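Notes to self, DUF6362 family protein:
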Amino acid sequence: MNTEIKYLEQRYREAWLTARRLSSGIQLGHGSGWPEMVFDKREQLRRAEREVLSVKPTAEQEDRLMECIRWLAPLLVVDRKLIWLRASGLTWREIANRTGVPRSSIHRFWHKALLHVQLQKTGRK
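result:
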C-alpha cells in the first residue's frame, strides 16, 4: 500500500473520531420533573473521567474533518460508506457483513475508493 493511501486512511480515522466528538447541537427543550441528582465522590470521579473523554475537537480538527468530507463528495455513495465504515474501526469481516459485499473484495473496493480520493485531491481524474 502506498504512503498516500496510508495517509488518507489515517486522515479518515481522525475525521471519524472528530465527528464522534462533535455535539449534535440539537436542543429539544425538554425539562425533567426529577430533582437534581446529588452524586457521591466516587460517582463524581467517574463522571469527570467520562467528560475528559468527550472533549470537544479543536477548530483545526474540525477543518480537517470538513476537508475529508469534501474529498468524499465526488465518490459514489457505496464508496463513501465503505471509507467511513473502515474509518470507524470495523474489521473487514464486519464491513462485509454490513454491506453484503464478499469479504475477499471489500479491501480491494476500499483501496480503489481511496485511490479515487487521492486522484481527486491531486487534481487528476
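- The two ends are 20 Å apart (CA to CA).
- The chain has one domain: 1-19+56-125.
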